[in-house]
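Quick board copy: two proteins, each given as sequence then tokens.
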Amino acid sequence: MRINGFSGMDIDSMVKSLMTAKKAPLDKLNQQKQLLQWTRDSYREFNSKLVDFRTNKLSDKYGISSALNVQKALVTGNTDAVKAEAFANATGIDMEVKVNQLATKASVETNGVGQGITTKTTLAELVAGGSSSIPTESDKSKEYSLTINDIKFEDKQGKSLFNGSTSIATVISTINANTKANVTASFDEITGKLIINSKTSGKDGKVELGSGGEDNTLLDAFNGIKQFELEDGSLVNTKPGVNALLEINGTIMEKNSNIFTVNGIQLTLLSKSTVDKPVTQIKTQIDSQNALDTIKSFVEDYNNLIELLNSKVSEEKYRDFAPLTDEQKAEMNEDDITKWNEKAKSGLFKNDDILSSVITGMRSVITSQLGSLSSIGISTGKYYENGKLKIDEKKLKEAIADNPQKIVDIFQGPLNAPNDGLLDKLGDKVNEALDKISLKAGTDKFSTDLNSIYKEESVMGRRLKNYNKQIKEMQTRLANAEDRYYKQFTAMETAMSKYQSQSSSLLSSLGMTSQ
């Protein structure tokens, strides 16, 4: 605490008055820093909205084939045997399907160790008789080998990936993670069986075990390999996969999978046809509502984004409303501070290059497709609406019904150029803007998180570092200046005190002499 001297002068007020003028450059630096921080935070908000529009809307919502699909499959008859989904290129051919045999995968099973074993059980516990057993250190370190489809599950040094301390869950995840083996493993806690299936279904799938006596000791831990009997009576370790056998409109077909596409309809075989329900009937019909709803939703999202961007690049800027200093805030109430800040933040993006470029880019994409869009009932509004789209719903619905493939070609691209549609081109323009925002503000061009951390090495990041450095240096200079002022006033007070003392002494001496 500073204490005023005997002189009666308000030194604190005098120093504060002197420092006010000196603090003006610091206040200006802090205000510039605040504007930069507000701008960067706003860029992150734009980044979030653009990522959402590019990824969640253009790609994941409107860009998938089902979004504009007007074909609908109607399934009657044996609906338990076949499931059907129509694609946009469905030919409209009616089909009668009879399933004679489902496709299966090649598989290997162990004999099983019964109940009481879970995926948390280790191999040492499994061999010892269950999770309640206490394995020895030797049991824990014992290695278990496995070879499938010429792939040995071992490390680069030739050491097995499995030992007594390995849990069944880890065994399964290790097998499934090996893409070269091309198999999937699972464990049935009811029977205690380890089951290994080929990823490839049908007769081409394979699960070939190592032929050496020490190649598959892992399977021995699960009570050995179950053998399967073939039609000729021979026993094999691997149950072979078979192809699906079916008839479509009387034509016999063989497929290596239970899921395949015929006449633009994806068929999923669920079970064999029965005697009482021998066939499944599949017809297609046009359902325009799905595509209509998709396009209406797209136009709404596009217009909302365009409106937001336009509002920011044309927002009025109030140059008389600079960010408030701490001293100014101390003299205002919260409501007044909020209103002031609204004015101070207004116009931060007036004529902003990045936002202006994405608006121009998106509008140019629309303009390049305007002929096609107009033919299906989509047009731009009045000039003062700045590129917003309008829909003639009746015309659009008729266009969808008349030529559904044309709708797909416009938005998602034709079959020979599936990435050349309106949605992809808009996505490219948005992506360009996200690249620019990321370089300038340090945002993550793949994230919608409004609390994501900025990259330090960005244009704004470097400017903020510079501001912080200047502010710190200026605060040091001001602190030194303030101390200097107080020292000067202290020296002045000391001198005045000394002078007054000398004066009093002199007066006293003169008084004594006169007597």
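And the next:
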Amino acid sequence: MKPLIQIALCAGGVATRARGLATIWCLALACLVLASGARAATRGLVIGVDAYQHVQPLRGAVADARDVEKALRGIGVEDLHLLLDRQASRADVLAAFEALATATRPGDTIFITLAGHGAQEPERIKGSEPDGMDAVFLLPSFDPKDPDGASEKILATEFNHYIRKIEAAGGRVVFVADSCSGGGLAREVDPRGAEMVYRTVRYEPLKDRLVSVADREDAFASVNDFHHSIFLAAVDKKSRVAELKIAGEGYRGALSYAFSRALEGAADVDGDGRITADEIFAYVRQVAHQLSDQRQVVVLESPAQQDPRQYVVAELTRGIAVRPFAAAVSPGEGLVISPADPDQDDITPTAGAGAPVPASSPAPGLPAVALVASRPGPNRAPPGAMIRVAALDGQNAALVAVAQQGQVALVAPNANPDLVWDPRTHDVLAGADIIARNIDTSDLSGVVERTMVLEWLKQRVASGAQTVRLLPGDNLHAKGTHVEIEVGKLTGRYLVLFNLSGNGNVQLLYPLGSDPPQRIDPKYSVALQVREPFGADLIVAATANQRLSELERLLRQSSRRISPQKLADVLSRDESQGLRLGFVGLFTSP
């Protein structure tokens, strides 16, 4: 049987469907494969759609596409076709796929990436989907109320069709789809918080005029028939993907952002110059999980024939050219990826016309933390950044004293604040989560400091992610509940584990007393019980090749609160020790 792959954009995402296996929903999928052939080429098709004309527009899909395009060019992909917004009509997309398939020669590697809305509709070929629903990727002029407009989409089976054509010509595909179906969430969204925009659309399907290029064999293709493919799903069937705000980047998809950083070399955590499937899976899963405030859990699918620990995806060299995989190459050969330019490790946000004006200049010595996107490479000293704070009722007079402490801009509750304080309940919300409860205005400075630390961590984690998990899950945990923090991949590394509560209080968790700072076992777990103060505790794991003595001293000397600037400075000085950072939020309620 020829190697086949079932790629189903399920209800706004992409899914792989293997016979006898559950469909993975809302899949932002990365198919990492070997190619063959002495004269192999590397090509790409990158699609990003924000400007939907008849359904809710998006804010970060075009930015995702541009970021992936830049990352692909950085690894030497020159034959690259970029389709943004109205350029991505059905006719243009199909023509681009046909051109790719026609040009493919043995050994070619083809990158195909999508960012935009997805949806699901009743299956067109009966029995091809376990739940009877086809997944589709929506194009900018899609209109669910018009037969012609309703045809502006690409069926999951049509992606299968073109990937099969590319494979039949001897090529291989790297397919990344940042889209989602619209299922549930790890935690419910608090209606007082910021509105979340999901990459999915729900509608009542009507009879369209679409003539599919896919046939029955495309519809029934099994993921396990594609023997060299490994899949990375953004979330499972029950979950959905929201666009998230990354400081210095704007709104983005977590997987696209993480995938781009991985291509730049950040996934090579052991520093051996080779990125294995196991490394890239762990990196993208951890980074996407943390950037999404644990609402997005990446799911891995790989065929039984592949060992992700031995599967070399790319090699890091000083060159920028892609070396295609060949049929006779020895294990470990593959794409040649250049490391990021050390002089380009920061992206400074451009000031917009509506940029907030701080209530006053920051007082000397007060904490300031970088809110710029980090690239793999040494972190620079973080510049000052403003935290946008709003009162839920729009009356910011009570917050003037907080703003005068520095690094705080008071904004309206509908002006995209980082923190929203409810004067009635004294809850503080970040996005759609309550992160601190029973907070008076005099206590808000601690919440602001915690936010600064979290934003810096979100940027830094892209440079090197430490595996850390919250068990049994990322849902809201009630008072008295027992949870477990598990830090993995620790053998031979030095560990520091600490907690930063929602109100900004800090607590060292490891090492304490006779705890050995260097771990000999692969993982470390600590059991915790939920108690006051309720909100969102931030559990941070820092590991390195040498003992993090300065960080330990800083945490032990801190009686209650810790300066975000000092923490960032200390951690930045540990970069040369192979520093990895990971964190999880423990969301709690009375």
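Board note added afterward: The chain has three domains: 7-341, 356-456, 459-589.
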